[in-house]
Amino acid sequence: MSGLSALLREKHIRYIESLDSKKHNFEYWLTEHLRLNGMYWGLTALCVLDSSETFAKDEVISFVLSCWDDKYGAFAPFPRHDAHLLTTLSGVQILATYDALDVLGEERKARLVAFIRGNQLEDGSFQGDRFGEVDTRFVYTALSALSILGELTPEVVDPAVKFVLKCYNFDGGFGLCPSAESHAAQAFTCLGALAIANRLNALNHDQLEEIGWWLCERQLPEGGLNGRPSKLPDVCYSWWVLSSLAIIDKLDWINYEKLTEFILNCQDEKKGGISDRPENEVDVFHTVFGVAGLSLMGYGDLVPIDPVYCMPSSITAKIKKYPYK
Amino acid sequence: MHGIKRKEWTKELLRQKRVQDEKKIFDYRHLTDSVLNLRDEKVYSTDALKKTSELLERNPEFNAIWNYRRDIISNSSSELEVSFWDEELAFVMMQLKHYPKVYWIWNHRLWVLKHYPTNSSMIWQTELAVVNKLLELDARNYHGWHYRRIVVGNIEEITNSSLDKEEFEYTTTKINSNISNYSAWHQRVQIISRMFQKGEIDNQKEYIQTEVSYIINAMFTDAEDQSVWFYIKWFIKNDIVCKTLDKQEYVKMLKELRENILLINNDEIEFSGKQNIWCLKMLLVLEDILEENGAFTEKNSEAYLVQLMDADPLRKNRYQSLLKNHR
Description:
The structure holds two protein chains of two kinds.
Chain A: H1 9-18, H2 26-30, H3 35-48, H4 57-66, E1 68-69, E2 74-75, H5 85-97, H6 105-118, H7 136-148, H8 154-166, H9 184-196, H10 205-216, H11 237-247, H12 256-265, E3 274-275, E4 282-283, H13 284-296, E5 305-306, E6 311-312, H14 313-316
Antiparallel strand pairs in A: 1-2, 3-4, 5-6
Helix pairs in contact in A: 1-3, 3-5, 3-13, 5-7, 7-9, 9-11, 10-11, 11-13
Chain B: H1 11-40, H2 46-58, H3 63-76, H4 82-98, H5 103-115, H6 121-137, H7 142-159, H8 164-177, H9 182-197, H10 204-221, H11 226-237, H12 239-244, H13 247-272, H14 277-292, H15 301-311, H16 316-326
């Protein structure tokens, strides 16, 4: 352990800034399928670090638009790739963060909403694209994107909520579909979806206690959080678990001091960025979820982040609350 | 990126990597462009399929290419022999061996099986063997367990029979080889619930008693591990157990568990001078249920909570909150 005791803010900003200049690395090209998500992770991390201007806004927006898949009417991760719900949410989040949803225009926006709604299945679940993979991740991405666009409807929300509730498990966790094992990332997607739908009240007091219990048992003696029992800690769960606890108003059920120490120890003190575990290779995914976790715990003067949308609270404050008046 | 050690890059190493990457990038981008061009030209030939194989071998995460591959197959599916589909399954298998955690590959395998020309239980039996093997290599693989439930569901549907008893035995085998296999404990809950629901158990009371012995044994085997405790928490509170046993039997079972937990905790205190935190957590739950069933007078909950604050400081605030509710 390097025993880092402070957030290397400047280093992380420089690390994120440098990401798009790594085109001479083979890995850059192998990760095209994550590029739009990566932009969202990078931008959100910068926002939390109060440095959103590090990215050139116009360039990012035009990159987002270049990912538009005109065949299916939604966002792909990279130009010429295929639209998917996961990347569609990232595109919408970036535009909303820049207060630039208008660049979509009426027609594109209508197609995008149709794409999302069109992927809802009869049981209320969502498939990620036309090939039928079902996962509560897609329920979340669908509801979150529609919510940001102000386009939720009872026809979409009600069956989706019903499906999410079926994914609640005996142990207080949520799975990727009914009868699947509890996983902390699915706790976030399910609780986030319920919060967006304004239906957290579908869970009773005992269930909320059980959820809080299962989530706080994710903290390990070294301070980090895992995603399932008997698994290793990983910085990304600083987001999945903490945001879930925040949504059910039990954020302080884990130990802040120990988790903060764990996240800080995952920083690369030379080149910046945060890794999954101490001494491992950093990436933008763990960097955003590390700083976002710190923000939820009120670390330093980080910019507050919304646990439901994983976007700056100042931005999400403008999202229309469902049910619409 | 998960589980990859940070590497010290000297200037020389960086230079070497850059030289090697230059060629790799050139080839990769060239291949990507040519495959995407074929796609845009709506070419659905065997050669195009081969090209997607080549690209997916280099990058199994490239979902647009998996999509194109499916479009190629769909466009020629009427002409495809069974042997084609078997080859496709073999290709996916190779991919899974290298990348068992890539969602797109699992997704593609299911798609192939869904479109396989003959819908016999045979192909799904093979899948069961495949997933068995995978779970031998990685007993907690999240995709693997998810996939297993789908495979078993398909076999049951085609053969119009229930595999619950076999699957129950499977969870026992998995737990016996590693008691911390929470995925198997989770699956056990699913199966037991179903077996009771479908009336697949002849002597239900006996079944529950056998399960009680099994979990007491598990508790003694590894009292530190939370897997078994989460299972116990479910077991003592769920409707199946509450309704199968009459009140007297239910209370007797709870007390039996309680005595054993106290025993484990006392052993631990003697051995290490510390309380076992999971014993305390479960005693709390047990006390509440016993009280609800009018079978308990002497309550130690507050004392347990105070002890837990000390013994399990990471979750101190939870205990504080419970204490507030208790008072």
